[in-house]
Amino acid sequence: MSKTQSQRKKEDEEEESQIMPSSPKSFSARPFSATRRSNALVVIVSLCIGISGFVFGLTALFVSPSARRCGGNIRPRSVSVVWETNALTSELKADRGGLLLDGERTRHKVMAFVGIQTGFGSSGRRQSLRKTWMPSDPQGLQRLEESTGLAFRFVIGRTKDKRKMLELDKEVEAYDDFLLLDIEEQYSKLPYKTLAFFKAAYALFDSDFYVKADDDIYLRPDRLSTLLAKDRPHSRTYLGCMKKGPVFSDPKLKWYEPLHYMLGSEYFLHAYGPFYALSADVVASLVALRNNSFRMFSNEDVTIGSWMLAMNVNHENDRHLCETDCSPSSIVISDIPTCSGLCNPETRLLELHKRKNCTDTPTVDD
Ligand SMILES: *[C@@H]1O[C@H](CO)[C@@H](O)[C@H](O)[C@H]1NC(C)=O
Ligand SMILES: *[C@@H]1O[C@H](CO)[C@@H](O)[C@H](O)[C@H]1NC(C)=O
């Protein structure tokens, strides 16, 4: 009798272990433990605050001048988000007041959100991008979003320079293709902006992937769409053109790393900085942590790579994301490693866009 009971218990356990992965690496499948409960609470509280912040964020959409101009048919794009203001909250709120938009209290659903990181000295690059692979108006962006599932926005912080801020305001009004972060651009060399970007993008968009791109690359949105839509066995993906390389301990060198003593002589595998993508599960984990929990190395690509090294993600290496010339399967064109993106991007973007082998080629190479 006791034998059958223990047998049954064993069967139950076996059944349970089939449902629950035995690997403790799977975050979502694990039951709540006492030690996790407080963490979960922080996450839930942050999420609630984040969501309410998002609702505030929508008010910024409502006051967007071009939204009024277009009669509300075209979904406005430029939004402001504030970087977290204290340790507990990842508060996102608009810096402009306004009314609530009814029925739009959910994050906008797209397959991927592509944030093109840009700065105050880069209006020429933005103009070149708008003349080449990136649509130059909200209608064009909307059409591209419908055909590829990709939403594109320029991502920029703020500056204390009033004249530059005014210029940016004008550009925002004219093109309405920005995501404005409430962080100082002077930190943009540090990876803080990237983290702020992922948090803001996650709050505003419900995407399978969040893509970080620089403003000096040539991109084929159609092929990127195909790549991101691919079936993957893992839900936690770090996708990019992967590299390793020497750690520079000489302060005179461009890529000097002050924390080199932690690293040894060669970096861990990480994606080139101008273009990489994180799946929603990965970004959700970043969003759940306080901004000052992360180690920041001096280079952005290495810093993200170090976070990904610590997390249970699949490193997906794709060389089509770092080609130096247009080919039948190239997705991102840059002059890596000569320049971090394209050398002389303003003119090179226009040159590339004139070439048949960059534009008049099929989406996928069969
Ligand atoms: C990160 O958060 C802390 C407080 O949690 C804040 O003092 C700091 O300014 C934030 N960092 C950035 C870059 O905003
Ligand atoms: C693409 O075309 C340019 C000239 O338009 C040529 O120089 C280049 O070699 C071509 N690239 C490839 C990969 O065929």
Automatic annotation (TrEMBL):
The keyword Oxidoreductase does not apply. It comes from the Eukaryota. Residues 1-30 are annotated as: Disordered. It holds the Pfam family Galactosyl_T. The chain crosses the membrane at residues 40-63. Beta-1,3-galactosyltransferase that transfers galactose from UDP-galactose to substrates with a terminal glycosyl residue. Belongs to the glycosyltransferase 31 family. GO terms for cellular component: Golgi membrane. Its EC number is 2.4.1.-. It is an enzyme of class 2 (transferase). It is found in: Golgi apparatus membrane. Keywords: Glycoprotein, Glycosyltransferase, Golgi apparatus, Manganese, Membrane, Signal-anchor, Transferase, Transmembrane, Transmembrane helix. Pathway: Protein modification; protein glycosylation. One of its GO terms (molecular function) is galactosyltransferase activity. It is a single-pass type II membrane protein. It comes from Linum tenue. This is Hexosyltransferase. Its cofactor is Mn(2+).
